Amino acid sequence: MxxxxxxxxxxxxxxxxxDIKLPKTEQCQLQDTPEAxxxxxxxxxxxxxxxxxxxxxxxxxxxxxxxxxDTTFRDGQQSMAPFTLEQxxxxxxxxxxxxxxxxxIRQSEFFPYSDIDKKAIAKCRDLGLKFPEITTWIRANDKxxxxxxxxxxxxxxxxxxxxxxxIFNKLGLTRAQALDKYLGIIKTCLSHGxxxxxxxxxxxxxxxxxxxxxFAIELQKLSKESGTPVKIRACDTMGYGVNHPGAALPRAVDxxxxxxxxxxxxxxxxxxxxxxxxxxRVVSNATAAWLAGCSSVNCSLLGxxxxxxxxxxxxxxxxxxxxxxxxxxxxxxxxxxxxxxxEKEIGLDIAPRxxxxxxxxxxxxxxxxxxxxxxxxxxxxxxxxHKILGxxxxxxxxxxxxxxxxxxxxNSYYNLEGNRxxxxxxxxxxxxxxxVSKEYEKERTSIMTDKELDxxxxxxxxxxxxGWKG
Length: 470
Description:
Layout: E1 6-9, E2 14-17, E3 67-70, H1 85-99, E4 105-110, H2 115-126, E5 133-139, H3 142-148, E6 155-159, H4 164-167, H5 175-191, E7 195-200, H6 208-226, E8 231-236, H7 253-262, E9 271-275, H8 282-292, E10 296-300, E11 311-312, H9 313-324, H10 334-346, E12 363-364, H11 367-375, H12 385-389, E13 394-395, H13 402-413, H14 427-441, H15 450-460, H16 462-469
Parallel strand pairs: 3-4, 3-10, 4-5, 5-6, 6-7, 7-8, 8-9, 9-10, 10-11, 12-13
Antiparallel strand pairs: 1-2
């Protein structure tokens, strides 16, 4: 097993590696090595993986058409108790509304194994929605294919693990045997008129030029011979992908996408990125894949999925809007409905500080921030969250909220706007501030509840409280 030679460059202050060099296209042939290439030196199990650089910065190559695909009912569902049939159907409808009429959430993949899976496919299909298109996911064997050939799906994902960790250590195959096995089931799909979507599992630890590119070249040949598109999903299964400028393979997201497009000739609309969040990079890596020329990013609602989860659908919907300058028909307010459904109907606990969907994502407790919100919401709110997501900014009152925080809470809680809104120098605010301060002098550590503050307002000014509540 060859160990990767990594050196520290005292001029750039970066780790560098010369082992993985860009070859000529004609040199990208299957390297059927006798031993697994586990990239020791880069991936040492008893150490944090290293990020290496080759100094080559690639230009942005954003496709004209980009979109999102969904894995909520496949990878996402593996991380929690199974959804009921009713929950799947409701989430599918919400997903369709979020994606809008242009189908920016274009596809949703389902397992084909259980009776509920099969009923869910039928029920969602019966809704008659144009988007998202229903697809399936299978392992690379004839038994799994038998499950989908009568489900009337136009496309299926196929698990085709591409790192030697999987080929040698999990499947017990050589690279040549793995390639033969994978191509066999892909040809079966093509012969039945089903479009294959090849899930290259663990691509960020794979021998890119010794296996991934030769495999992708074979897939392009099959696509041309059959006249049927063959998609490639680049799966960052362990979240090792990085998006730093000049980062080196096999971890560099942009070079993985660039290599598939340049060396294997895979069109952008046949490329898809699937990432995990093990190293906190799932959203930035998905964006990097778009920027590098990958049309599709695979996500799940609220980012549910194996271990640390998948890329959150809602994050990429917002990211799309930032990159394109338009929602293109997406209904972003559905994001709030999806979060509420997961909490109330499915029982998922959403971390309060989760962007866009957590209960505290636009909540402040600092008095100086509350003062800014009171004067101009734009100062401390990321965008008009009420207009776009249906969620008003909130001030939670504690010992640091000050007069501004209490004034903002009063205006927000009682919907006081314009001339009805009170200012922080209102005597009522000072009275409530003193009440709150006394609570924290008793060494209270929790925030004030709405019920407590409402009672303070009533005690301090019964007349105004009555008018506001009425």
